[in-house]
TrEMBL record:
Residues 6-119 form the Gfo/Idh/MocA-like oxidoreductase N-terminal domain. Signal peptide: none annotated. Residues 135-254 form the GFO/IDH/MocA-like oxidoreductase domain. This is Putative dehydrogenase. PANTHER family: D-GLUCOSIDE 3-DEHYDROGENASE (PTHR43249:SF1), UDP-N-ACETYL-2-AMINO-2-DEOXY-D-GLUCURONATE OXIDASE (PTHR43249). GO terms for molecular function: nucleotide binding. It holds the Pfam family GFO_IDH_MocA_C3.
């Protein structure tokens, strides 16, 4: 058995209690929660009492010094990710951070400077990669089992009402980083990118059609991949019949998944083209996509002293695509992945430094 790691949770809100604590408890032989930090001291204390956590605090720096966690799980609102991750890395702790990673590529690249060879590393919560169906499809793509990827669909059609955006940090570039592309569709886009690899060019439209927000509430994009595949991407919070839908058309098969916030094997279908025998295509195990599944891979990486999946250049892909989407939609021009470098205003701010407000008036 590997080391039993000491864990601190930063941010005692719903995602910590609803997703991360159950995942950590599922790996209780490998991880022990020893501290919780929240800006609201009463909430931190209540969380600690409910989950029998030894230490609660409003001070991350003090907690890192006193509790000396091996792993910090960052569950704060997005604007606080950069500080929490950087402080934890500098204290020598590995970090598992909720999505979206940070508010810009500039912040993402800054955090990379605080990692060290062999750890600590920061990885990001993209749990949809880790279900058995996605793992099976990823192997089939790598092996060429299904032929070449040609056409794709990546749609996150969700519904968030006006009350949802009453939370002060939501719907603002400076605190959420963006709209549904950043806060919702990022999961499906990351799954797509983990399967299809690097993209080359994006052309996008977006608008604020109904919600009282500073960001977009819907976006539509066309993405060209290095492989030559073409994919349509839609991110919406205006869709009463909610669905997360991905479709991949290969030369020899179509693979689809329809779900909402998570899947198991029953949500996936493999359809071979006529004349192709799909022997052995379907996954044999049935592991749902979940925080629990990703945490297992993260802890494995910690035990080996290796970079975890969904970190570094691999974890950067979804933020790159979102940055390109926003730049294309705001400027009205196609954007190349190679354009997303220091000196580009969208590298530092996902709205280009106030440009969406100018074009959406």
């Amino acid at each position: 058995m590997g080391t039993r790691h000491r864990v601190a949770i930063v941010g005692a809100g719903g995602i910590a209690a609803g997703r991360h604590l159950p995942a950590l408890r599922a790996h209780a032989d490998r991880a022990e929660v020893v501290a919780v930090v929240d800006a609201d001291g009463d909430r931190a204390a209540a969380f600690a009492a409910e989950w029998e956590v030894e230490h609660s605090s409003t001070d991350l720096a003090a907690t890192l010094e006193v509790a000396r966690p091996d792993l910090v799980v960052v569950c704060t609102p997005p604007a606080a990710h950069h500080h929490g991750v950087r402080a934890s890395l500098d204290a020598g702790a590995w970090v598992w951070c909720e999505k979206p990673p940070v508010l810009s590529l500039a912040e993402y690249d800054d955090l990379a400077e605080h990692e060290r060879e062999g750890g600590p590393y920061v990885g990001y919560v993209f749990q949809h990669r880790f279900g058995s169906a996605a793992q099976t499809l990823r192997r089939q793509i790598a092996d060429g089992t299904l032929g070449r990827p040609l056409v794709g669909v990546c749609h996150t059609l969700w519904y968030r009402d006006h009350a949802y955006y009453a939370v002060p940090w939501r719907g603002k570039w400076e605190t959420e980083g963006g709209g549904p592309a950043m806060g919702h569709g990022i999961h499906q886009m990351d799954l797509m990118l983990s399967l299809l690899g690097d993209w080359r060019e994006i052309r996008a439209l977006m608008g604020t059609l109904d919600r009282d927000v500073a960001t977009e509430d819907v976006s539509i994009a066309a993405v060209a991949f290095d492989s030559g595949a073409l994919v349509s991407v839609v991110n919406s919070v205006l869709s009463p019949r909610q669905e997360s839908y991905l479709r991949f058309d290969f030369t020899d098969a179509t693979v689809e998944v329809s779900h909402l916030y998570g899947y198991d094997n029953s949500n996936w279908t493999w359809t071979p083209r006529e004349g192709v025998e799909p022997a052995g295509w379907l996954p044999t195990a049935d592991v749902p996509s979940s925080h629990t599944a990703q945490l297992a891979a993260f802890l494995d990486a910690m035990d080996r002293g290796e970079r975890p999946p969904a970190s570094g250049a691999d974890g950067r892909r979804s933020l790159e695509l979102i940055t390109g989407l926003y730049e294309s939609a705001i400027t009205g021009r196609p954007v190349l992945r190679a354009d997303l470098a220091p000196g580009n205003p969208f590298y530092d701010h996902l709205d280009g430094g106030g440009r969406y407000q100018e074009v959406s008036r």
